[in-house]
Amino acid sequence: MFQLFLIAFRNLGTHRRRTLLLGGAIAGVTALLVILMGLSQGMEETMLRSATTLGTGHVNVAGFYKITSGQAAPVVTAYPKILELVRKEVPELDYAVQRGRGWAKLVSEKTSAQVGVGGIDVQDEPGFRQVLQVRSGSMDDLMQPNTVLIFEKQAKRLEVKVGDIVTIAAPTMRGTNNTVDVRVAAIAADVGMMSDFNVYVPSQTLRALYQLRDDSTGAIFLYLKDLKQMSQVQAKVRQLLTDAGYIVMDNDPRAFWFKFDVVNREEWTGQKLDITNWEDEMSFITWTLKALNGLTGILTFVLLIIIGVGIMNTLWIAIRERTREIGTLRAIGMQRTRVMVMFLFEAMTLGALGTLAGALIGLVVCVSVDAAHVGVPEAAAMFIMSDRLHLVVNAGSTVGAMVFITGCTTLISLIPSFLAARLKPVTAMHHIG
Amino acid sequence: MSLKNLLSAAAVSVALLSAPVALALEPAAMVQILSVIDDRQRNGGDYKAHIYLEQKEKDKTDNVREGFVYRRDADDKLMILFSKPKTEAGKGYLRLDKNLWSYDPNVGKWERRTERERIAGTDSRRADFDESRLAEEFDPSYEGEAKLGKYTAHRLNLKVKPNIDVAYPVVKLWVDKDTNNILKREEYALSGRLMRTALYPRWKKVFSESKGADVWYPEEIRFYDEVEKANSTIVLIKSVDLRALEANLFTKAWLESKSR
C-alpha cells in the first residue's frame, strides 16, 4: 500500500502545473472557510462576552410584577431570598449579580433619548470593567448615587460630557411620573447595538426613580463556571424555584421586553418569575450569527462543487493520458482495486496538501487581523457588538474543515478512479494517445 | 342651574365674602372650588366631543390628528377614536372596567395600556379627556393670589391623597377668581420637578338636558413639556354634543367596526 502512495505522490510531482492549480484552488477554499469560521466564532465569542456582562447572565432569574392586571413591570421582589436559595442549591454557579431593569427618557439640555436603564452595583460586577473601555471619567464614580454611565454615541447625540447633568424621567410601577437628575460619571466606548439603548446607573438610583424597595431588582444574573451546562442549570433553577413555591412563567425564548404584550394581556396580578438564558435575551441579535453561518455553508458548498468538478475533470484527463501506463500496470499483475486506490491516493494527497496549505494561510490571516485590531464600520459594529474585528481560530474546527474538504475531494475522485480500474489490459495497451 | 350647583355657588360666595381680601382660603372653601370645577365638567348622560390634536416635537414634523371623544360618565366609560389623517383613521382607545385598551386597525390588534399613557404619542393623556376628578384625588392648600395676564387667580397647591394613583402627584392650579375656571395647571413629578404645564385660554358651556345644568369644557388646552422644552401639544375641542349615544358604543366590536 505504501508503494501505491509513493506512486501517487510522484505522479503529483510529475504533473506540477496541474497539481499547483488544483492545490491552489483547494487551498483557497480551505482558507476562506477557516476565515469565515474564525469570523463567526469571533462574533459569537464577542457577543457572548459583551451580552453576558451588559444585558444578561448565562442564566437569568427575572420576571414581572403586576399591581394591576394591565400594567407589568420587569421587577423581581424579595430577590435576596431567591439568590440565597440559588447559591445554596446550584453548585455550578460561579457568581451572581442583581441588575435593575428600567425604560426611561434620558434628557439633556439639547435633546433626549429613550433608553434602557440598567441598575448596577459596580463594585459587585467583575465583568463590567473587562468588557467596557472607559473613554473619559471613571467607572469607580458609579459607586456614588445619582451618577450615570453612557456610551460615546449617546454622549455625542445628547451633547454631554463627563460632569454634565442629565435627567432621567420615567413612570413608577404605579404610573406616577418621577425624575432623577444624574451626573455623567463615565463615557465608555461603543459596544455595538448595546450602546444605543442602554445606560447604567447605581442600583439605588434606579430604585429611587421607580420607588422600589431595597429588596427589589430587575433580574438576577447567574454566571456559571462552565457555560456548556447552561441548559441543565436553567432547568434545575426552574424546578428549584417551582418547588420553593414561586410561580414560574412558561418558557418563552425571547428578550424580556418582547414579552410585555403577552404579560399585559393576561389577567394575573402579583409576581411571576421568568427563567431565561443569554441566548433567549439576545435572540434578537443572534440571527446575524446564524445568517453568517448559513452564508458560510452556502459559499463552501458552491466552492466545493467547483473544486469537485475540477478534480474530476483533471482525473479524467490524467486517466486518458495514462491509459497505456494503466495497461502496463494491469498487464504485469496489478489488481483493479489497486489501480483505483492509486488514483484515490493521488486525489487524497492533493486534497490533504491543499487543505493544509489553506488552513495555514487562513490561520495567518485570522491571527494577523485579530492582532491588528482592525476597526469595523458602524453598521457592522451594531451587530458584532464590538468596534473591533475579532477572529478566533478553533483547532478542532480547522481540522474538521481540512478533513471535510479532503474527504470531499477523495469521494469526488471515486468515479473516475473506478472507471480507470475497469480498463482491460489489452484495450489499454492498444490505446494510442 | 341645578339646586346642587346653586347651593355650591352660594357656599363658595359666602366663604369668599366672609374672608378678608387676600387672606388664605379655608380648606373647605378650596375643596368646594375643586368640587365645582369637577361638577361643571361632568355630565349625567353621554358626552361626545370633536377634537383636534396638534403635536410639535423638536426636529420632527408637526402633525395634526382629528378625533372624537365619547364619554359616559355615569359608568366611567371613555372612548377616543381618531378619524384623520388616513394613517391614523380607526385607531382608538377604550376604557373598560378600569382597563385602558388601544386598538390599531392596521394590525387588528387590541393592546392593554396604562392609564397614564401618552395619547397617540402626544403630551396629552387619557385623564385630559375624561371627567375632572380633582376633589377626589387631591388635597388642596392655598398659595395666594396671582395675576395671570388680565386675570386674577387663586393659586392652589394640590397634593395627591394617599393610595391614589395619578400621573402627577403634585399639581398647582391657577383658578380664576371670577369664574372659578382653571386658567393654568402645572404638574410635578414625585421628585418635585415640573414636568408639564397646561394652559386653558378659553372655556365654553353647553346646557345638558340630562344633567339639567350647564356642562363646561375647555375649548382649547395647550400642553407644554417642561422636560423637553421644545415639545408641545395643542388640544382643540371644536364642539360638544350631549345627546344620548348608542347603547353598545362602548364596546370593542363598535370600535373595530369603524375601521371596516
TrEMBL record, chain A:
<keyword id="KW-1003">Cell membrane</keyword>
<comment type="similarity">
    <text>Belongs to the ABC-4 integral membrane protein family. LolC/E subfamily.</text>
</comment>
<feature type="domain" description="MacB-like periplasmic core">
    <location>
        <begin position="24"/>
        <end position="240"/>
    </location>
</feature>
<dbReference type="InterPro" id="IPR051447">
    <property type="entry name" value="Lipoprotein-release_system"/>
</dbReference>
<keyword id="KW-1133">Transmembrane helix</keyword>
<dbReference type="InterPro" id="IPR025857">
    <property type="entry name" value="MacB_PCD"/>
</dbReference>
<feature type="transmembrane region" description="Helical">
    <location>
        <begin position="340"/>
        <end position="371"/>
    </location>
</feature>
<dbReference type="Pfam" id="PF12704">
    <property type="entry name" value="MacB_PCD"/>
</dbReference>
<dbReference type="InterPro" id="IPR036286">
    <property type="entry name" value="LexA/Signal_pep-like_sf"/>
</dbReference>
<keyword id="KW-0812">Transmembrane</keyword>
<feature type="transmembrane region" description="Helical">
    <location>
        <begin position="20"/>
        <end position="39"/>
    </location>
</feature>
<protein>
    <submittedName>
        <fullName>ABC transporter permease</fullName>
    </submittedName>
</protein>
<dbReference type="InterPro" id="IPR003838">
    <property type="entry name" value="ABC3_permease_C"/>
</dbReference>
<keyword id="KW-0472">Membrane</keyword>
<feature type="domain" description="ABC3 transporter permease C-terminal">
    <location>
        <begin position="298"/>
        <end position="425"/>
    </location>
</feature>
<dbReference type="Pfam" id="PF02687">
    <property type="entry name" value="FtsX"/>
</dbReference>
<feature type="transmembrane region" description="Helical">
    <location>
        <begin position="298"/>
        <end position="319"/>
    </location>
</feature>
<feature type="transmembrane region" description="Helical">
    <location>
        <begin position="391"/>
        <end position="415"/>
    </location>
</feature>
Automatic annotation (TrEMBL), chain B:
<protein>
    <submittedName>
        <fullName>Outer membrane lipoprotein-sorting protein</fullName>
    </submittedName>
</protein>
<feature type="domain" description="Uncharacterized protein TP-0789">
    <location>
        <begin position="75"/>
        <end position="256"/>
    </location>
</feature>
<keyword id="KW-0449">Lipoprotein</keyword>
<dbReference type="Pfam" id="PF17131">
    <property type="entry name" value="LolA_like"/>
</dbReference>
<keyword id="KW-0732">Signal</keyword>
<feature type="signal peptide">
    <location>
        <begin position="1"/>
        <end position="24"/>
    </location>
</feature>
<dbReference type="InterPro" id="IPR033399">
    <property type="entry name" value="TP_0789-like"/>
</dbReference>
